[in-house]
Amino acid sequence: MKPHTSPRAAVAGTLTLALLGLGTTAAAAEDPPRVDDPPDATAALVAKVAPGDRHVVDVEARGGVARASSAAGTTTVPLDGGAAVVLESRDAAVPRLEVNLPENLALRDGAVADDGTVVFRSYDGGADVAVQSLDDGSARVQTITSSPEGPHEFTYTFGDDIVLSPNGDGTIELLAPLDGGGAISRGTIDRPWAADATGRPVDTHYTVVGDSLVQTVRPDAETTYPVVADPRVERGFGTTTIRFTKKETRRLRDGATAGLISAWLPFPAGAIIATASYLVRRQAKSAAAQGKCVKIVVYGWPPSTFTWWPHTYSGGYCK
Q1: At CA 25, angle to CA 22 and CA 31, rounded to 5?
Q2: What are 169-219's pLDDT values in tens digits?
Q3: Total number of domains in the chain
Q4: Which of 144, 162, 230, 291 is deepest in the core (most CB within 10 A)?
Q5: Which residues contact 82 (CB under 8 A, 6 or more apart)?
Q6: Of 234, 266, 288, which residue is a domain's last?
Q7: What residue numbers bound the domain in which 281 lies?
């Protein structure tokens, strides 16, 4: 049988941000959303193929923005397709995280589906975007590509001074450098995934290019449109992580910077950790001997109740 291709087959993608993929199809595909379709059609498409048990949070649309609240914090999605999605903690001391929609797409203003999904149609029909706020405080950004000739790559950025650090498990950590050394975690991007309309996995991967994250979707001859792919952005509300490079780990080992920890975290966490700097120094000695690095994880956010502990890690920012 000759492979069938829908005249407007769809591919979507997510950063949790979620992405929908593309390719030729060996079976008849469902009719994908059109520009004049209601946003609920796109929301239903994503719900059908997105993995996991996270639930979309309803939003309040007012004044040109759609805002969703959960126990973890607030996600603000401007209806202007050129504006950034903003993730904020309920603790005002935690810096907010910005996620820009794919920069290679020209998007119309967003419309809100009944379940809270905000859908941005493209001007040229190349790829649409669907943004979802989830009940764990994370956010997904799905891209929906209209045909095999549409975009295969989607580029994301995350505001000023954010460093992208790939982890060994396929996740990407979003780090903000600190004065005096080290970098504090602002959030994490889940491992990428992609699935076609039948639920069949589609190959996808991330590439870090400078301060940008590129998700590439690679369909094959068996791919049935539409395809959904996902990067999910998590703010990391429950913990705060400070990572150090190999050079900085050696300095911690030698005691040169342990006292500066108090300047990197608000009182009283920084002061308390600094007084127990022997723990950091001991961990740094072990990490340096293995050619690895130290990170300090603070559970909770000062000045509220918190605990902390130094850990050894490798890869990503450890270089």
Answers
A1: 75
A2: 889 999 988 776 778 888 889 888 877 777 778 889 999 999 999 999 888
A3: 2
A4: 144
A5: 101, 107
A6: 234
A7: 239-313
Burial of 259 (0-12, 13-18, 19+ CB in 10 A): exposed
Residues 142 and 23 in one domain: yes
Q: Mind listing the pLDDT tens digit for each residue in 283-316?
A: 999 999 999 998 888 776 554 566 778 889 888 8
Residues 302 and 220 in one domain: no
Please list, in sequence order, all residues whose beta carbon lies within 8 angstroms of the beta carbon of residue 239, skipping any fewer than 6 positions away. Answer: 185, 297, 298, 299, 300
Each residue's pLDDT tens digit, 130-156: 999 988 888 988 888 777 777 888 899
Residues 280 and 143 in one domain: no
Based on the fold, state whether residues 65 and 204 are members of the same structural domain: yes
Answer yes or no: is 195 within a domain. Answer: yes
State pTM to two decimals: 0.76
Q: Are residues 201 and 92 in the same domain?
A: yes
Lowest mean pLDDT among 20-34, 99-113, 196-210, 224-238: 20-34
